[in-house]
Amino acid sequence: MEKTLRQAAEKLRNYPVTKRDLERFLCVVAERQPVDLWDVIHYSDEYVRVVMEIFEALKKDGFVDVDGDGRLTLTKKGRNLMEESGVRAAEIPTITSLASYGIELPPKWQRILEEVRRLYTEVVPKDAYDQAPLLPEAAVRKAFYIYARGDVAGKRIATVGDDDLLSIIFALTEEVEQTLALDIDAKLLATISEYAKERRLPVETLQHDLREPLPQNVRSQFHTFVTVPPDTVDGITLFVSRGVELLK
């Protein structure tokens, strides 16, 4: 992977090519193969030159094949690269009517939704903490969308504020390495912790006031963070900055 990144970066000296760019390219091809290169550009949300140079580097080293119609597939070598890098293809969201929140859930995620609906009855929002959790249907679809972007499987995920119970939702996929629920609400965290222990889910909790510095042992430990901050400039700045501190 490092060699491929280096080859792509050499041609894009004024634009960074990251491991995340390469992972996203591999995920999109694995999800949709055989896939047109322009569809890879569209679904990866990456800068077109980054995608083109990653493609050239992967093709040169035999990680992808191109058929007679110009569509890409991963070779065995490419699949091995994904496995060695811990990159996993995710299920593709199907866009349906707005009546179902715009995303049709696969059967596995339907089961997660049913489980989360029961857990939601134990969570009481607190005005003192500006809590306004999503409905379970919206929270699970939000988690599924993040999953489909390649930011869940094999990852360590932190939820900065977790009244939506995303730490549990992600863990129920059985594909995360670990989730951390970081919140000021001790009762909420107790509910999350108790449920996680019952189900033997890889969920940790941390009660913390984000106005205070984060403990050193959680900084730079996570691949993904998710947050819904208060609707103020100060709130957004605080929650997002703490989330960034958590990232590797």
Task: Describe what this molecule looks like in 3D.
This protein is of the alpha/beta class. The chain has 2 domains: 2-85, Arc Repressor Mutant, subunit A (Orthogonal Bundle); 94-246, Rossmann fold (3-Layer(aba) Sandwich). Helices cover 47% and strands 13% of the residues. The protein contains 10 helices and 9 strands. It has helices at 2-11, 19-32, 37-44, 48-60, 76-85, 107-120, 136-148, 166-172, 186-199, 233-246; strands spanning 35-36, 64-66, 71-74, 94-95, 103-104, 156-160, 178-183, 203-207, 224-227. Strands 8-7-6-9 form a 4-stranded parallel sheet, sandwiched between helices. Helix 9 (186-199) links the parallel strand 7 and strand 8 (203-207). The radius of gyration is 20 Å and the shape is globular. It starts with a helix and ends with a helix. The mean pLDDT is 86.
**Low-pLDDT ranges:** none
Q: Output the CATH homologous superfamily of the largest domain.
A: Vaccinia Virus protein VP39
What is the alpha-carbon Rg in Å? 20 Å
What is the strand arrangement across the widest sheet? 8-7-6-9
N-end to C-end Cα span: 18 Å
Q: Report the sheet with the most strands, covering strand number, pairing sense and barrel closure.
A: 4 strands, parallel
Number of E-type strands: 9
Structural classification = alpha/beta
In the CATH scheme, the class of the largest domain would be Alpha Beta
For this structure, the CATH topology of the largest domain is Rossmann fold
Portion in beta strands: 5-15%
